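[step 3/7] fold_predict: job queued, chain A
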Amino acid sequence: MAGPDLTTKELELLEKQNSRIVPEFKANKLELEAQRNWDLFYKRNETNFFKDRHWTTREFEELLGDVDGKDGEKPKVLLEVGCGVGNLVFPLLEENLSLYIYCCDFSPRGVQFVKDHKLYNEDRVRAFQCDITTETLLSELGPGSVDLITCIFVMSAIHPTKHQAVFQNLSRVLRPGGVLLFRDYGLYDMAMIRFKPGSKIGENFYTRQDGTRSYFFQASEVEQLGLAAGLVPFQNQVVERRTVNVKEGVDVARNFVQSKFRKSV
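[step 4/7] structure written:
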């Protein structure tokens, strides 16, 4: 259902997307080749595409201190899923937070870029390749093994039929009382409206020209994904931003869903 702030032009663009849907055989091919497409993405862009995420400790203050309010000497264990080339990991390491970081990505090439970084040191961080839609994560880390998980602009790249399985896997490696921090693209984000006919795979799910995909979330469905996995939300909201570039005449709405969950004790 369209949001109240959509213009007539935006509604027309969304409707036009339905004029040519991605055929089922192509959609299946995109799913089968998902890892290959992300590997090719990192081959083309190396470490130059995404900006370092220096905003994460501002939005997710849980990364700065104890998640239970009981300060201790032992560093917290953080798992970052979908680490890419380390745009979140290395800014955190530079802040010298009391964290030991596990990070994983679907793309072996992305993981190798992390390992090749000058700050990579397995005394503080360990990177590994992992498909988080499978039970590989559990066999790699073990149940109840991490205090914090960041899942930032990751779930949108995964087929929506697998979202619940991912939440279940994240919940299983999170210790009771541990916290999952989530941020991803929201419904009617500018990127969603800009997709052309021939890009739409299904409801709120699209493919880019390079074969990578993007899903756009509603806050209510993210909440339900967490609850079904035994994770209780204590923040769940749509974050509205604007991307403004005066020189290029750009002023567009960005919508993100930001959620925080605590695993039931």
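[step 5/7] annotate
The longest helix spans residues 34-45.
The longest strand covers residues 231-245.
exit 0
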